[in-house]
Each structure stands twice: as C-alpha cells, then as structure tokens.
Design brief:
Blueprint (H helix, E strand, L loop, with lengths): L1 E7 L4 E10 L4 E11 L3 H8 L4 H20 L4 E6 L1 H5 L3 H12 L3 E3 L2 H12 L7 E7 L4 E7 L2 E8 L3 H5 L5 H14 L7 E6 L1 H9 L7 E3 H12 L3 H6 L5 H4 L2 H15 L3 E3 L5 H21 L1
Parallel strand pairs: 1-4, 4-5, 6-9, 9-11
Antiparallel strand pairs: 1-2, 2-3, 6-7, 7-8, 10-11
Length: about 300
C-alpha cells in the first residue's frame, strides 16, 4: 500500500509518499518521496486576511505538481490538509474550490482540534503514563494537548505561530489566554511535566543540539540553542547553520513560544519525536484503509 500526505501549512507546504510495510506485528512507513516547498501563505493571510492572487497561482501550480507525483507513484490513497492560514483567509475556501474544479483534488481545511487530533496519532507511540504537555508550533497557530496517566485531558488551539509572531500579527490577549490556559490546566498534583515538541523549528533546535530522534533535551539547552542562533544574522543561519531561508527567520519566534509554554508549565525537558501532521495523516489513511479492507472481507 502506498499513501500520500500533504500538509498545507502557514510557512511551507509538505508532501510525502510512503510505502506501508505491515508484517502483522509492526507497521512501518518507508518514505519514498518528500518535498517541502516554501510557500508562505501566512504572510498574506495574517497581514491582509486574504491569499494574494500571486500566491493562489503558485499554490495551484504546486497542487498540480503534487497530483502528478501521486499519479506517478501510483498512490492508493492520499489526503490534503490545510491549517491555520487557509482556514483564516477570506478566500481560502474559494481557492480550495478552484483546485477541486481544475484538478479534481479535495483540500480539507481542518480546524485546530482536528489538526491536534491528527498530530496526536503520530506522537501517541512515544508516550507512557507520565504527564505530558504536547506543544505543536506552526506558522499560524500553536496546539497544546495535556496528557495524564495515558489519557488526553485537554486540548486547545491558539492563534500564535512563528510567522504570525515574526510579522507582529500576534495578539497580547492571545498570549495571556495561552498562559492562563497552561497555568490553569497543568496542575501540581500531575507531578513532573514532560513537554513533547512537534514542528519544524523544534526539530531544527533538536538537530542543532546533536540529539538522536526520540531523545529529550532540557529547557536550558533549548534556551542555549536559541541564544546561539540569535547571535547569527539571517544569512549566517542559512550558510553556517544550513537552515532554509524560511526557517532562518522564524526559528527565534518559534523558540520563544516553546520556551514560554514550558516555563508556564514548569516543564524542564522536552521530548522531540520528529513527527508532525503529515505523519498523523499517514496513520489516519492507513487505519481507514485497513478498516475498509476488513469490512470487505467480512
């Protein structure tokens, strides 16, 4: 079985095709193709409320390219999911309808809860019965999920993201709301809180800390990496730290979000499984197809 997941974010659009390896004891997703295209929809939306005509044309070209890759890889099932930028834009649905009419591709514009639910599928195998605060920082929003004794207790999406903060389109009220939510819901009797970080920026911080996937890093280490990165200019981050240009400018505001949430939760370490929305989409598609196959056989 071949599956494709497309994550239409506010800072970039990710495409992945994977082959499913299922030996009845363990399911593995072998990556066949991965493309990350830096189309920053959030730049338009968070400043003007709309996706510009230039970005719309680029977007449709990119969707056409992704559809061709899906056909060339003979993918069995796929899913396009759009998050914060498209769901907030005045013409996001209009763009999705144009893509449907021109390419026959359905773009699912999902809300923050659905986004968190899909990402949670990807991280669940990394969690035990300890207390976790999952922090997913995107370009336009931050999703927080609280786990205690193996169960998700609370979830909330906030309009605070790396692109939004970079371009000063974040609201002090929303920051206060997020701080209040964390302090109210992360209770002392839950014991030690381990943060779980997902998103491209925490993955880059993790990479700069020279850690292996699935390991944890301390809050102090995150702060040290942030300080080091901040000492470099944007050009130096690109050439010396090997960052993509659209990562180099958002990594500091993204770091600030992770750091603030961890401090509010009194969390001193963060687990970085290096998975995200596209991985959750893959799991959803796999489970859906397996369920359908069982129904057919029965």
């Amino acid at each position: 079985m071949k599956l494709a997941a497309i994550d239409i974010g506010s800072n970039a659009i990710r495409f992945q095709v994977s082959s499913v390896l299922d030996n009845s004891q363990q399911v593995l997703f072998k990556k066949l193709e991965y493309v990350r295209f830096p189309l920053r929809l959030g730049h338009d939306v968070f400043s003007t409320g709309r996706i510009s005509s230039k970005s719309m044309e680029k977007f449709k070209k990119l969707m056409r390219a992704y559809k061709l890759l899906i056909e060339l890889y003979e993918v069995d099932d796929y899913m396009f999911c759009a998050t914060s930028a498209m769901r907030e834009s005045e013409n996001g649905m209009e763009l999705a309808n144009q893509v449907q009419a021109e390419l026959g591709v359905t773009i699912n514009i999902i809300d923050g809860n659905r986004e968190a639910e899909l990402i949670n599928r990807a991280i669940s195998s990394y969690l035990t019965d300890q207390t976790y605060l999952h922090i997913d920082v995107g370009g336009g929003s931050t999703e927080l999920n609280l786990y205690f004794n193996g169960k998700k207790l609370k979830t909330r999406s906030f309009k605070i993201g790396s692109v939004r903060v970079l371009e000063h389109n974040d609201s002090p009220v929303m920051w206060e709301d997020m701080e209040h939510w964390v302090k109210e819901n992360v209770k002392k009797n839950y014991g030690k809180v381990i943060s779980v970080g997902t998103g491209g920026n925490i993955s880059k911080i993790f990479d700069l800390a020279n850690k292996k996937p699935g390991a944890t890093i301390s809050l102090n280490k995150v702060k040290d990496i942030r300080k080091m990165v901040n000492s470099f200019s944007i050009d130096e981050r690109i050439y010396k730290l090997q960052m993509n240009p659209d990562r180099a400018d958002v990594i500091i505001p993204a770091s600030d979000i992770y750091i603030k949430v961890m401090e509010w939760a009194h969390s001193t370490s963060i687990l970085v499984p290096e998975v995200g929305l596209k991985d959750g989409i893959m799991l959803y598609l796999y489970e859906k197809n397996i369920s359908q196959q069982k129904i057919q056989f029965n």
